[in-house]
Design goal:
Chain lengths: ~350, ~325
């Protein structure tokens, strides 16, 4: 057990993966000499050399496409996309090529590719560098999607992604890179894709969170007047249906806590499934606490409201439990927007 | 029974190269007929007129080299060695198809001969070939990667990013552009700032050659020079193959947008006729043997069509295979 910041946990995972398998290469903008703009690849160049740790041109279409081809022909590349938004210029390579090569070759070509990308608001980067992009990928059969919620999940999910024989997108909430925690490294620290974690036990409600909302949900539950099971989903594709259903069966209530627009958010999938499977067993409507349907605003007071806050989550959950009815979101209640 | 690899190795022989070009021509004609008959659904992109590029390329590469190709890929697949019944099976969506019928005309793949799944997105395969070249470089050995794409793809960002990356990393990649003068329905001069595409390599300090894509042994020789450079660690090359698409872009397109006489002028330099004449002149074959070859090819493709017509369509369960490892 070592105390690491989340970016250090990423570096540690990459170093361990590269020691384990000589086919693992790290590719991205400024990942080698500078060690990554978020310092998540620091030290790799010194240990593994220029053959396996490669700075690229600012050219996502080129180097992500190259990583797909490399993965199909014997390497196990890990690509860093500095800001997840930059995947927008290379979606073809991920969604239309990587996700389909195994299918379109009847299994002759697999794509053991890991794409790491920073996501999320909180650092004042404005509308084009602050989005959560899970929903860009989650309706693409052939891709897996995992989201780190702190140093341990950053380490464990990344190790599992690199070992996986299919393309995996690992999203890292950028505002969590600096947070420190004890990290179990090595095989014991690896987190199987598709497994959620129940972080706290409670009887009144299940809070399902992912990535950056995990610490928010956790803090909201700590010291609240009600008891919550906080579930860190960890992997969105495939998601751990059994763990979530088991938890909601016990608590009778589901609140999904999401960073990102209300409409079409990843929580719609969770909410719909739970409502459908546990219809008769619910004590309250399934509920989603999300961001409003707006681009991420810059000014600090606005950006702070954009991401569900601890107070907001606590208030929404409290009202749901108390009234048994769906609480209105803050922007409707405060008249900021209908 | 012959295998895909046997078919590939056979191309060392000039007569086999002639025969393979005839096979591709005959095959594409049948695909067109089957499409109009309604037994090929969706779309087809035929390569009649471009046979020398496919065969010259395949005659030069090793089966362990990696090839990415476009949706106009029937000829490349057949040239690399894929069995006609497996290629037609895929086009007709049958279980005997290269990937069991889930792919279709635009998605052909056979790893044994180095054919990665052909790409239905213009330019999609170019960076993938760069990555295959990266594998060759990092894992050692002297295999190379080849990207085959059309002139239209040279206006796609992925083309430029790929050439730059391959040049910066000095990767063993050969970029082969089949300049058939049309991107979909638009003539090259209306969409592209330069019509001699080899010059585009200059922006990436990359060697390039302009090749007569109608002469199979010229194609093979140019590919050989580029491949030797790549195998020797001297990095990528761009080869522009000047060629022509006899058919339109796809399906029922007959190419009405082409100027009068253009098709006929290119047919006057037909790659199959040129090579047959050259082999007869060299005394490699007689005119009678050329005719016999053509008849044998027709007969064989007749058999392939009959066989694939009888082949089963996939069960519903087939759609669930090979999504994950």
């Amino acid at each position: 057990m070592t105390k690491l910041r989340m970016n250090q946990a990423v570096s540690a995972a990459l170093a361990d993966a590269m020691r384990e398998d000589p086919a693992v290469v790290v590719i991205g903008e400024d990942v080698a000499v500078p060690g990554g703009v978020f310092k998540a690849t620091d030290g790799l160049l010194a240990e593994f050399g220029v053959g396996r740790v490669r700075d690229t041109p600012i050219s996502e279409m080129g180097f992500l496409g190259a990583a797909v081809g490399a993965a199909a022909t014997g390497l196990r590349p890990v690509v860093e996309i500095m800001f997840g938004e930059f995947l927008g210029v290379a979606l073809d390579q991920l969604v239309t090529e990587a996700a389909k090569l195994r299918y379109l070759s009847a299994g002759q070509y697999g794509v053991p590719l890991t794409v790491r990308a920073s996501v999320g608001a909180g650092l004042g980067f404005g509308a084009q560098h602050s989005q959560c992009l899970e929903t860009w990928f989650y309706a693409t059969p052939g891709l897996k999607v995992a989201v780190a919620s702190g140093p341990q999940t950053a380490y464990g999910l990344l190790r599992a992604a690199v070992r996986d024989d299919d393309p995996v997108v690992v999203l890292e909430p950028r505002r969590l890179y600096g947070g420190r925690a004890e990290v179990v490294t090595g095989d014991d620290g690896i987190i199987a894709l598709g497994s959620a974690e129940v972080r706290t036990a409670g009887d009144d409600v299940t809070l399902v969170a992912l990535g950056g909302t995990v610490p928010v949900a956790q803090e909201a539950a700590d010291g609240a007047g009600w008891g919550a099971e906080v579930v860190d989903l960890r992997t969105l594709v495939p998601w751990d249906v059994a763990t979530v259903l088991d938890s909601v069966r016990r608590t009778g209530r589901l609140v999904v806590v999401e960073e990102g627009p209300f409409s079409g958010g990843w929580g719609t999938e969770i909410a719909a499934r739970v409502a459908s499977e546990l219809f008769g067993e619910l004590r309250a409507p399934v509920h989603r606490v999300t961001s409003p349907d707006v681009p991420v605003p810059y000014a600090k007071p606005l950006e702070t409201r954009y991401v569900p806050t601890v107070e907001y989550v606590r208030e929404q959950v409290g009202e749901l439990i108390e009234t048994g009815r769906t609480p209105r979101p803050w922007w409707s209640r405060e008249g900021a927007h209908r | 029974m012959s295998t895909s690899l046997d078919r590939r190795v056979a191309l060392r022989d000039p007569t086999a190269r002639l025969e393979r070009m005839m096979e591709i021509r005959e095959f594409e004609g049948r695909v067109k007929d089957l499409f109009f008959e309604g037994v090929v659904s969706g779309t087809t992109h035929l390569c009649e007129g471009q046979e020398a590029v496919s065969v010259g390329l395949a005659a030069t590469l090793r089966p362990t080299d990696h090839v990415t190709c476009t949706y106009r890929g029937h000829g490349v697949a057949l040239a690399l060695g894929c069995e006609p019944s497996a290629v037609l099976g895929e086009i007709m969506g049958r279980t005997v198809g290269l990937v069991g019928g889930v792919g279709g005309s635009m998605h052909l793949s056979e790893r044994a001969v180095g054919l990665m799944p052909t790409f239905a997105i213009v330019g999609g395969g170019i960076p993938v070939a760069v990555g295959a070249g990266l594998s060759c470089q990092v894992l050692g050995g002297d295999d190379v990667a080849v990207a085959v794409f059309g002139d239209g793809a040279t206006n796609i960002g992925a083309f430029h990013e790929s050439l730059n990356l391959a040049a910066v990393w000095k990767l063993p990649v050969v970029f082969v552009v089949e300049n058939n003068l049309y991107g979909e329905y638009s003539p090259i001069a209306s969409t592209t700032a330069v019509t001699d595409l080899a010059v585009r390599a200059g922006s990436y300090a990359m060697p390039a050659e302009t090749v007569d894509g109608q002469v199979v042994d010229d194609v093979a020789a140019a590919v050989r020079r580029a491949v030797e450079r790549a195998r020797g660690g001297d990095g990528p090359t761009l080869l522009e193959m000047k060629t022509y698409r006899y058919s339109g872009h796809s399906r029922a397109d007959t190419g009405p947008y082409r100027p009068d006489g253009e098709l006929e002028a290119w047919q006057g330099r037909d790659p199959i006729a040129l090579y047959a004449d050259a082999l007869v002149a060299a005394g490699t074959v007689t005119a009678g043997e050329v005719d016999a070859l053509r008849s044998a090819v027709t007969e064989r493709i007749d058999e392939v069509v009959a066989e694939v017509r009888q082949a089963p369509e996939p069960d519903p369960s087939a759609m669930f295979g090979h999504i994950h490892a």
